[in-house]
């Protein structure tokens, strides 16, 4: 394997890692949004009562 191939494989691995991390962050953000919305709804129902 020459240097160009090694750099190419390293670049692919890094971008795959960045993509996986972004996917993980998006999933966590979605979970936090759902939780926040449920807390807001819960708060509204408690204030109405």
Can you describe this structure in just a few lines?
By secondary structure, the chain is mostly helical. It has one helix at 3-48.
Description:
By secondary structure, the protein is mainly α. The protein has a domain of 28 residues. Helix content is 94%, strand content 0%. It has 1 helix and no strands.
Structural features:
49 residues; mainly alpha; 1 helix; 0% strand; rod-shaped
**SSE pattern, N- to C-terminal:** H
Q: Please work out how many helical segments DSSP would assign.
A: 1
Strand-pairing-aware structural class: mainly alpha
Cα Rg = 21 Å
Provide the residue-averaged pLDDT: 94
Cα distance, first to last residue? 70 Å
Shape: rod-shaped
Share of residues in strands: under 5%
Question: Helicity level, as a percent range?
Answer: over 70%
In the predicted model, the low-confidence regions spanning at least 5 consecutive residues are none
Tally of extended strands? Answer: 0
Query: Biggest sheet: strands, sense, closure?
Result: none
